[in-house]
Amino acid sequence: MAQHPRTQAIRLQTERTAQKEHATPLFLTSSFVYDKAEDMAAAFEDDTLDVNIYSRFKNPTVDEFVNKIVQLEGAEDGVATATGMAAVFASFMTFLSAGDHVISASAVFGSTHSILTKYLPKWGITHSYFDMTKPEEIEALITPRTKMLYLETPSNPGLDIIDLQLVGDICRKHNILFVVDNCFATPAVQQPIKYGAHLVLHSATKFIDGQGRVLGGVIVGPKDLVYQLYLFIRNTGPSLSAFNAWTLSKSLETLFIRMDAHAANALALARHLEGHEKVSRVKYPFLPSHPQHAIAVKQMSNGGGIVSFELKGGIDSGRKFLNALQMLSMTNNLGDSRSIASHPASTTHSKLSEAERQSVGITPGLIRISVGLEHIDDIIADIEQALQQS
Ligand SMILES: *Cc1c(COP(=O)(O)O)cnc(C)c1O
Fold first, then answer.
1. Is the pLDDT reported for residue 50 higher than 90?
2. Among 103, 160, 229, 235, whose Cα sits 20 to 30 Å from the Cα of 289?
3. Are residues 30 and 156 in the same domain?
4. EC number(s) in its UniProt entry (predicted)?
């Protein structure tokens, strides 16, 4: 019987070396040696051979990290990248050609939006955006050149949820590659392949690392598609470093227990904020007031670690709130053991016009909290005193 994913996240490990190490070893080496000239020749003859050549191609520590994500996501195979954005870019570059069309949710990560709008057009690849809350409008956007549908659920920072099964069915019907950025949920909470996603990718920098230390990315899916991604990454170079893979693989040992704790703290915070005199709206997937709560409960095992809320006082209140925080960190990362607050309208999304911000759900007083693992009473106390000054 296959082990439970919780166990696999802890026990999957590179084959023990002659040193009899207990914790996983770190293979910090650029290249690998051969016993005979014939072995070296054979290694280069066939790209599909499972042999260590050079760490841009493959490395045992990186393989260990990838194998764990493959198991947790219920995929066939996977490949790692240096960052989450390298995973996004590799997915576009590997499967899209001049003249092709991508359909994407409008609420995608800022740099993904930049690739779609600033870089892909240079190679004649066009895109259409749909609203996460209106999946019924997706089919009308499909053209004969539509190759890929791309989305994140929950979205950042709006925390909109889309029905993965519904989108998966549309993609199957029209023979479109369905790609999901599963960074906000992690495979401990949601496995999009179950609902028809072909490729699932991650910024491993966030909850997978979970302690704000290293950058990394990973893409998993069917063997034939992953092989094409592998060749793109092997030849163009955005490979994951062995050190970062080692850090991330160790992090996966605590992924499930951390996600449970992030979600418990996040739900408690969301409940505290709902109905608060300074707050007009709270969004958290597992609050019954979330517009897509029923879908969230269907496809996620908990609500994840991100809560957003709207300050009644708008943009000025947002700045005051951030300045008044004493414990929560003001930083751009998320998915850390330390709680983090951000105010998208005055920071990450300040360059967008008001209309563009509205279209991706960023209202003037929107605050995003990446709820950490500190004691919930301390998280609430800091947010409460900052709210009083906002
Ligand atoms: C951070 C993030 C990315 C980009 O990942 P990096 O590791 O920073 O390159 C992509 N998608 C989502 C949803 C993210 O939060």
1. no
2. 103
3. yes
4. 2.5.1.-
Question: Which domain covers residue 305, as residue numbers?
Answer: 255-388
Nearest CA to ligand 1 atom 5: 84
pLDDT tens digit sequence for 19-38? 999 999 999 999 999 999 99
Kindly report the pTM of this predicted structure: 0.96
Other beta carbons within 10 angstroms of residue 165's beta carbon come to 15
230 and 108 fall within a common domain: yes
Q: How far is C-alpha 314 from the geometric centre of its chain's CA atoms?
A: 29
Assess whether 101 and 245 both reside in one domain.
yes
Q: Whose CA is nearest to atom 6 of ligand 1?
A: 84
Same domain, 104 and 207: yes
- pLDDT score at 169: 98
- Same-domain status, 24 and 168: yes
Check pLDDT > 90 for residue 256. Answer: yes
Cα of 111 from ligand 1 centre, angstroms = 8
DSSP code per residue over 205-242: TTTTT-SS----EEEEE-HHHHHHHHHHHHHH--PPPH
pLDDT band at 133; cut points 50, 70, 90: very high
Q: Write out the two tokens for 375.
A: 């004691």
Q: At 51, which CATH number?
A: 3.40.640.10
- Do residue 244 and residue 268 come from a single domain? no
Pocket test for ligand 1, best of 104, 109, 153 (most atoms within 8 A of CB): 109
* Mean pLDDT (the chain, rounded): 95
Tokens of 28: 């910090």
pLDDT tier, 345 (very low <50, low <70, confident <90, very high otherwise): confident
Instruction: Pick the residue whose CA is nearest to atom 8 on ligand 1.
Output: 84
Ligand 1 centroid–CA 123 distance in Å is 23
Specify whether 213 is located in the same domain as 347.
no
Residue 108 alpha carbon, nearest atom of ligand 1: 13
Ligand 1: residues whose CB is within 6 Å? 83-85, 109, 152, 156, 181, 183-184, 203, 205-206, 215, 217
**CA–centroid distance, residue 153 to ligand 1 (Å):** 13
Q: How confident is the model at residue 382 (pLDDT cuts 50, 70, 90)?
A: very high
